[in-house]
Amino acid sequence: MKEFNLNFKRDVTTKICIGDSIKFNLFDDLYINERVYGYIIITDENVYNLYKNTTFKTFKRNLRVLDIIKIKSDEKMKNLDTVKSIYDILLKRKIDRNVGILAVGGGVIGDIAGFIASTMLRGLNLIHIPTTLLSQVDSSIGGKNGVNLGDVKNLIGSFYHPRAVLIDTTFLKTLGENEIKNGIAEVLKYGIGFDDKLFNILLTQKEDIITLKPTVIDKIIEKSVKIKIDIVRRDEMEREGIRKLLNLGHTFGHAIESIGGLKSTKHGEAVSLGILIAAKISMNKGVLSKEAVEKIKEALVMYNLPIDIEKVNFKYLKKYIVQDKKVIKDEIDFIFINKIGQCSIQPVRVKELWQKKLFLN
Ligand SMILES: NC(=O)c1ccc[n+]([C@@H]2O[C@H](COP(=O)([O-])OP(=O)(O)OC[C@H]3O[C@@H](n4cnc5c(N)ncnc54)[C@H](O)[C@@H]3O)[C@@H](O)[C@H]2O)c1
Prior knowledge:
16 helices; seven-stranded mixed β-sheet; Dehydroquinate synthase-like, alpha domain; binds nicotinamide-adenine-dinucleotide; about 20% strand
């Protein structure tokens, strides 16, 4: 098992463990050091049904579990109504600040539970146990949480760091192919934007990756987590700009996701299209070579991720790009790909970004 610490200026540390079959013994530490006497587990119905006789039994054996709140597995549940219903349960249980929140699930659960933990009683102890590839490499790290408002993604939220993130890669064994693909899109983002070696692993070891060979899957998760840690450490609240680099492929990706009414296009598929659009814009602006764009396309296709950007509904896309919370005075910090393994940020006028020829050719 590998262990890292993510330290922040305000005396906050997140302990991150990555391993195959973590025994969750870290709880002993947290239990004593943080004076947490009991945990409310927030999970989704799928995850609970899959792990009720194993992992959840371990939790009950090792922790004082005060309640297990099961949410329907659906992005549409990531809203303020769900948050309110959880607040009500916590109020009924008369919880105090020595109760911890244990988020067990994918990014949807992590985002909801993180928001609850950050707002209830002005902050409860939070532990993430991410169970999807996407949540293991991305959403559980870095303290962002939140819910959607209407069909606009992640509009309400906060920065709130968990005390620990326990990444047990054995959870991935029950994950469907589509969910693996979803997480791979984020790993590709790390490779394309930050680490050409990671990109090469993805290009050359596809079989080992999709069959979840432990040595390879642990390696790509560890590399991804380290990239994210390194960036978050330098720009915790996304103020310096460096953290914005993690939005590579997400300006268009989030908009594409929103067009589908938060349902039809999965996050990973939207990110795949967003990465390709970012690559094409970078090429048409003269910062990325055509060969690199072709390599990026090859990798996306290899993992069965979509590249058909001409099918995107541009009329609606424009509406969502314009209302992106990152647009300030008609400008957005766009993430360009300079070469594989390196990206940069530059303000671009939304109108300029909007020229179809920039990304269709
Ligand atoms: N906070 C952040 O920094 C951040 C970053 C990226 C994405 N996100 C958010 O994350 C969300 C997407 O997360 P996701 O892709 O994990 O989706 P998800 O949480 O909806 O999980 C996907 C599906 O996998 C199921 N599942 C979870 N673990 C499983 C397991 N081990 N075995 C079998 N099935 C399992 C779930 O029940 C669900 O049906 C989006 O809402 C996105 O906005 C947040």
